[in-house]
């Protein structure tokens, strides 16, 4: 049995660093309860992350974070590193992952330390950012037709790999669950 636990994070001009945690009460996002009609009191940008957990040996264990697709697979090379990452929280990401993930980008995409840091600012901390004053398209939110796997391949290869050849979903439904059937190999 898996449980999806959502934690909302708010970013705004008062935050000093990308790793700073500013949790908010759901009451602060009145627009969500009102069919996503924003009240004018809400911040333009929100950061959202989620955790997928399962019960193992009577304990709830985090097995995945739900923000940026495929970062666990591309950036954490060992099972131990993947587990530690999945058990962590975004507020610790910058301090914990800047150095090892910069090394991955240097190896896979020949990034300089400066370019690696600039690139990692898009995915660290691992929260999905949405600025409602900007058009929705990954990495500003994520639409159902965004091909985030191609975007991640381009990131880790410094654009030497342009995609996986699968493409985004084109079989969207007009009602929940919105996505069509999974792609077959």
TrEMBL record:
Pfam families: DUF4331 (PF14224). It comes from the Bacteria. This is DUF4331 family protein. InterPro entries: DUF4331.
